[in-house]
# Entry
Amino acid sequence: MNTPAKSNKEQKTNRITQVDSAPSRVQASKEKNAPQIPNSSDQGESSSHSNGGGNKGKASRAEASRRRRGDSNEAQWVKCRNCGKLIYKQHMEEMLFVCPECNFHFEIPGPVRINTLIDQGTFVERFSKITPQDPLKFSAKKAYKDRLNAAQKNTGLKDACIVGEGEMEQIPVVFGVSDSRFLRGSMGSVVGEKICRGLELASELSSPFIFVSGSGGGARMDEGILSLMQMAKTSAAVSEFSRQGGLFISILTNPTMGGAMASFAALGDVIIAEPKALIGFAGPNVIRQTIRSEIPDGFQTSEFLLEHGFLDFISDRSELKAEIVRLLRYLHLKE
# Structure
C-alpha cells in the first residue's frame, strides 16, 4: 500500500521541529570551546533524544556513576589559578585548600584559618563590637557605606580583621587574622585599632601575638588619611610590644600587599610565609611600568624573598601550626 503524501502543513511542521531540535552553530561552537567539566547526565539526555531512546540504558548508568562520585554539578570542581588544573573541591578542602598538583595555597576565610591553627574550642573573639565609619562620605563607583554593608552581609564580619584569645597545643596566645573576603582584607581604622588592641592585650597577658596577614587591598583609601595613619599606628604598637619583651610572629599569605606589608606585617620577630605567596608593596606591573624595565623571575614571591633574606622560613599550610608551636616552645616558654 502506498503511503499517502504528507500535506504541506505537516512537512513544514517537521522542518521546524528538526531545526529547533538541532543546536545552532554559535551554540555548538561555544559548547565545544568552553572549558567545562562534562556532565554525564547531559550527555546521556542528548544521546537518547537524538537516537530515539536507544541509549537510555547508558544514560541511566552514567547518572548512577555520577551520583556515586558525588560530582552532581560543575561547582564540585575548582580550577587552580597557578597550574590551571581542575581539582575536586572536596579533595582540595581535605588538603586545607591547597592544590594537590602544584602546592598552590588558595586564600581561605578568617574563621577557617582560626580552625586550622587554634586548638578546637579555645578561641574567644575580642573587640568584635568595633565597627567602621564613613567620616568622608566617600563615593567612587559605589558609595563606601554601600560597600561596607555588602561586605558585612556577605561575610558576617564587622570588618576585615578578627582578633581574639586562644591556645595552640595548650599554649595561650593572642591571635589575629585578616579576611580577604572583606574588601580584600584592606586595612582601615577598625583593622588598625584591633591590631593595636590585640598587641596591648598580649602584653597584659604576657602572651605571644600571632597575626596572619592576607591583605590584597593594602590601606583602605575610602577612609583617606584615617586609613593611612594605621600604618604608623600599628608600627608604633609593635615597637612598644617589642620593647616590653613580647613575641610577635607574623605570617604572610597570598597576597600580603600595600599598607599592611609596609607596616606591622613586616615587623615580626619571626616572619613566616606560605609557599608562592605574593608579598610586597606595589604590584609587579606597577613596578615594571615605574622602572621601565623587566623584573626578575619570581619577583615578590615567598621564595624570592626568602632567598634575599626577608623571610625566616616558608611553611606549608599543613605544617604551619606545628612550626609555630615549635617556635613558641623555644622562644616563649623557654623564658
Q: What stands out?
A: Residues 239 and 267 are 8 Å apart (CA to CA). DSSP finds 13 helices and nine strands in the chain.
